[in-house]
Write a structure and sequence with these properties.
The complex is a heterodimer of chains A (157) and B (141). Chain A has 157 residues and is an alpha+beta fold. Chain A has one domain: 3-Layer(aba) Sandwich (Chemotaxis protein chec), CATH 3.40.1550.10. Helix content of chain A is 43%, strand content 28%. Chain A is globular, with a radius of gyration of 15 Å. Chain B has a 5-stranded parallel sheet with strand order 2-1-3-4-5, with helices on both faces. Chain B has a single domain, classed as Response regulator (Rossmann fold, 3-Layer(aba) Sandwich), CATH 3.40.50.2300. Chain B is an alpha/beta fold and 141 residues long. The chains are: A alpha+beta (157), B alpha/beta (141). At the A-B interface, α1, α3 and α4 of A face α1 and α4 of B.
């Protein structure tokens, strides 16, 4: 299941980021969250959504603040100076909502999953979620605006 | 003639993107109304005539399915076409939207072509000066 879910996550990242955020992607290297997503960023925004169904768990989307600002510019068609915190956080929530939905339907469109409302993690939780562990499924992708990561943690099923 | 379109989504950026996409789809003359959940949408629907409702499914307070069911119980609102725009992609969920009375379904992420196809299907051609896209997406139930 782990390999199939990781493939579905990569497919959904391509589908969502290229269609809705007009970002070109590169999956071609062995990037890591700590080195490439967190790297020299002042702040990484982490957003979480849980899913329940045939199996249950949660996804976490990690994105440096400057990359999220670029995503919001592309998504809403606004200049960075006109974008509010509510809009960047709303964009992160919408991104993980679409990533989770697209991943699960790409994994198996015959299964039904219920998604929670997405939530922005506080800085302590965001720091904790930036650490990688072996039981997590992680996809790190290079966009033109920087690296982003999607993690899946399956808790049951 | 301008149409009134109510966009229901708890995400401010997504409401903005849907309205931008509708404008790019040849419906630039539409009057847009917004609501962050189903309960607020019902308030809007009872104060202003709408030609079309585009709603998210997963929302706080009242979700898109509950909104459709409330509309179907109200004689003044039951004939207003509803498009569900959602990340929910399972066959069972799509059939559930159809049974509830949704007239069309669009899965996120979406393209302007898909939005245009659904709007044209429900409202007819309404090309205007803001029209810039011409597509033939295939997204029927």
């Amino acid at each position: 299941m782990k390999t199939a879910l990781k493939t579905a996550m990569a497919t959904s990242i391509s589908e969502v980021l290229e269609t809705m955020f007009f970002m070109s992607l590169d999956f071609g290297n062995n990037a890591s969250i700590e080195t490439d997503v967190v790297g020299d960023s002042d702040k990484v925004v982490a957003c979480k959504i849980t899913f329940k169904g045939e199996f249950s768990g949660h996804f976490v989307f990690l994105v440096p603040e400057n990359t999220l600002l670029e995503m919001t510019e592309n998504f809403m068609g606004l200049d960075s100076g006109d974008i509010s915190k509510e809009e960047t956080e709303g964009t992160a929530k919408e991104a993980i909502n679409m990533l989770a939905g697209a991943t699960l339907s790409s994994f198996d469109s015959g299964l039904v999953f219920n998604l929670s409302m997405p939530e922005i993690l506080d800085s302590k939780e965001a720091t904790a979620s930036a650490k990688e562990s072996e039981d997590e499924i992680i996809v790190v992708t290079n966009t033109a605006g920087g690296y982003i990561a999607l993690k899946a943690i399956v808790e049951s099923g | 003639m301008a149409v009134n379109i109510l966009v229901v989504d708890d995400s401010l950026p997504m409401r903005s993107v849907i309205m931008k996409t509708i404008k790019a789809s040849g419906f630039g003359a539409a009057n847009f109304f917004q609501a962050p959940d189903g309960a607020k949408a019902l308030e809007e629907l009872r104060s202003e005539w709408m030609d079309l409702v585009i709603t998210d499914y997963n929302m706080p307070e009242m979700n898109g399915g509950e909104l459709i069911m409330e509309m179907k119980k109200d004689d003044d609102l039951s004939s207003i076409p509803v498009i569900v725009v959602t990340t929910e992609g399972s066959r069972e969920k799509v059939e559930e939207f159809e049974k509830m009375g949704a007239d069309a379904y669009v899965k996120k992420p979406f393209t302007p072509e898909i939005i245009k196809e659904k709007l044209t299907q429900l409202l007819g051609e309404m090309q205007d000066e803001d029209s810039s896209e011409d597509g033939d997406g295939d997204f029927d139930f």
